[in-house]
Amino acid sequence: MLLARSAATAAASWLHPFVFGKAQAGARNFKREELVEYSRRLLDIWGNSHLGEQGGGQTLDLALEQLILEI
Fold first, then answer.
1. 30 near 8, Cβ under 8 Å?
2. Over residues 25-31, mean pLDDT
3. What's this model's pTM, rounded to 2 decimal places?
């Protein structure tokens, strides 16, 4: 969604036009700052899971579920 929000066309974003349209529609529900924060948190979850550093003994699937439920 962050990529689709910043690109003018599907070709400029390197996304399929259908995916681009859906991502743009979804991005309208969030402020840019929110999308950046969710992106940062997703990268943190992914990186920490590969390093085995999830807080509270969480696995990748539990950390992702928690993030989704917070949204």
1. no
2. 94
3. 0.76
